Please model this.
Amino acid sequence: MSAPKKPAKVSLRKGGWYHPLAITLGLASVAWFVGTFFATSTHDFPKVGTVPVLSGIGGWNWLIASVLGLAAVTVADSTRGPRANTGGWRYAGPAMATCGIVGLAWIVVFYVIANTETRIPIYSDLGQWNILIGMGFIVAAFALATKWE
Model:
């Protein structure tokens, strides 16, 4: 008779956004985006004024902040542990269809009432931002399509 086997030790690998480098790069990216906003707009940092380093770089700040964010996502993704295949999300199909239809309707309504006297509260005040909002719903529909089986 053989001795019972001991259960294998399962080591929980801390990776993804738990990785210190990913967190540091992510925070640096957010800070650089905020700094770029103040450096490229008419506003100054509260209680600091202008930062010559950021003001001197100009439009390149947006690229630097984006690269830092991309590096953070890359580090987090490369250190993430294995994931179990749980299948698709049950409500992804209906949510995808709803987001797509709402986005399309949002843009169509904007174009239909754009040159008329019709005013919809808040909606009409958004102006050209309505196109971005409608496209946001459509992009969300495409994102939900990746969860659908």
